[in-house]
Design brief:
Largest sheet: 5 strands, antiparallel
Shape: rod-shaped
Number of strands: 5
Helix content: 25-40%
Order of helices and strands: HHEEEEE
Radius of gyration: 35 Å
Distance between the termini: 127 Å
Number of helices: 2
Strand content: 25-35%
Structural class: alpha+beta
Oligomer: single chain
Mean pLDDT: 82
């Protein structure tokens, strides 16, 4: 019996290709891992973007509430006297998660806008109400110290209102 094996060209070719399947499997696994990482990153980015959109909408509503509050205070005449000067901060963190700094300024010139039925001049005064809402940790908005943070959201609204009062 001859214990020598015969070497055919087919046997040597099969022996040379024996590790090729392992390399192909590793390449496929690496490609699948990269694809999974890309999908995970895309999903995470979309979640963060959605959360920031919601926070922006809440900040806008808080700023809108600040301008409404400021207009009411200015027209009622209870804002630091009748001057309507200065600023106040509304703490809406328990309900909305935002603080709103509302500033009121009165335009220097009052305008005569006709007369009422008794012949008294109607004086119109303009008020500028600025409201800045933010979710920072400072006592007032804007919060410059936290404005570079990823979760910081700030919105500003401005309203100009007029008040016709014969008493001015």
């Amino acid at each position: 019996m001859n214990k020598n094996r015969s070497r055919h060209p087919r046997d040597t070719a099969a022996r040379a290709q024996r590790g090729l399947g392992m390399v192909a499997a590793i390449v496929v696994l690496v490609m699948m891992a990269v694809l999974a990482a890309a999908v995970t990153r895309l999903t995470w980015t979309q979640q963060i973007s959605s959360a920031q959109d919601i926070m922006g909408a809440r900040a806008f509503q808080a700023a809108n509430a600040g301008t409404e509050w400021g207009m009411y205070q200015a027209l009622k005449g209870s804002w630091m006297g009748t001057n309507c000067t200065g600023s106040q901060t509304l703490d809406l963190t328990s309900s909305m998660g935002f603080k709103v700094t509302v500033t009121c300024t009165t335009q220097a010139t009052a305008y005569n806008e006709g007369q009422d039925s008794t012949g008294t001049n109607l004086t119109v005064r303009l008020y500028v109400i600025d409201a800045v809402a933010c979710n920072g940790s400072a006592a007032t908005c804007p919060d410059d110290a936290n404005s570079a943070g990823m979760n910081y959201v700030e919105r500003k609204r401005q309203s100009i209102i007029s008040s016709a009062d014969p008493g001015f």
